[in-house]
Specification:
Helices cover 94% and strands 0% of the residues. With 160 residues, the chain is mainly α. α1 runs antiparallel to α2. The relative contact order is 0.04.
């Protein structure tokens, strides 16, 4: 009977060992499966991180490129506007200088005409006085007086 119990004990032990071995194998398979899943997840995460970093880098490069293009476009527009305003200012300055020159020439011409008219008036006045002293006929003196009035009005200048 002892043998029977020993045999039962051995069978139980063998069964227990077999179950333990099966459990250990199952656990090992499960552990390997979990390990593989974790490694796969880590790899997926790394790939996702790399993809996001690449996308972020591409986005930043695109934004930088767009920003630089916009900046260059605005600088060009500003340059064009500045040149336009400088050209307009130069044109106005030239027109102002031309106007001043024309004005100065005109004033100079008017002064010369005024001086000539004053000289003519003075000459007429001298002639008139001489003719008066020489007792020239009154009709000639009258005509000469009218001529002097005309000359006198010509010597009066509005511009001073």
């Amino acid at each position: 009977m002892k043998r029977y119990y020993d045999q039962l004990e051995q069978e139980r032990k063998a069964e227990w060992e077999r179950r333990k071995q099966e459990d250990d194998e199952r656990r090992e398979v499960e552990r390997k499966r979990w390990k593989k899943m974790i490694e796969d997840l880590k790899q997926e995460q790394e790939e996702e991180i790399k993809r996001r970093e690449r996308e972020e880098k591409e986005r930043k490069e695109r934004e930088d490129k767009d920003r630089n293009e916009m900046k260059q476009k605005h600088e060009e527009e500003i340059k064009v506007m500045k040149k336009k305003h400088e050209d307009e200012a130069r044109k106005q300055a030239e027109e102002l200088n031309d106007f001043r020159e024309r004005k100065e020439r005109h004033v100079k011409e008017l002064k010369e005409k005024l001086e000539d008219a004053q000289k003519n008036y003075e000459t007429l006045e001298k002639v008139y006085e001489q003719l008066k002293q020489q007792k020239t006929p009154p009709c000639l003196l009258k005509q000469l007086g009218e001529l002097m009035k005309i000359a006198k009005t010509a010597t009066q200048c509005v511009i001073q």
